[in-house]
Structure to design on (89 residues):
């Protein structure tokens, strides 16, 4: 288990170093675009090109929220009796 944790940490460190190297490269920042994005262009892209990925993301997020709500529930007998005002036998 410690080996897996070590490999994970080294992998995350390597990924961070790669991201820093890519984002700090001059080629990424040298060629600025002439036109700025507009709200209409963003809406068009989100509704036409990204409709299915956004739908899948929404479904995954709702499943995660339902699962979190289910896991938080406390159904031990003493808590249910206290919540509903019942008495133990």
């Amino acid at each position: 288990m410690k080996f897996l944790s070590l490999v994970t940490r080294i992998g995350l460190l390597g990924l961070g170093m790669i991201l820093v190297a890519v984002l700090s490269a001059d080629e990424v920042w040298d060629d600025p675009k002439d036109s700025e994005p507009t709200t209409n262009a963003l809406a068009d892209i989100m509704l036409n090109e990204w409709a299915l990925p956004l739908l899948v993301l929404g479904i995954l997020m709702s499943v995660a929220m339902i699962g979190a709500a289910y896991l938080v529930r406390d159904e031990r007998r003493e808590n249910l009796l206290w919540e509903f005002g019942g008495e133990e036998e």
Q: What stands out?
A: Residues 2-23 form the longest helix (22 residues). The helical segments are 2-23, 26-30, 39-48, 51-72, 77-84. DSSP finds five helices and no strands in the chain.
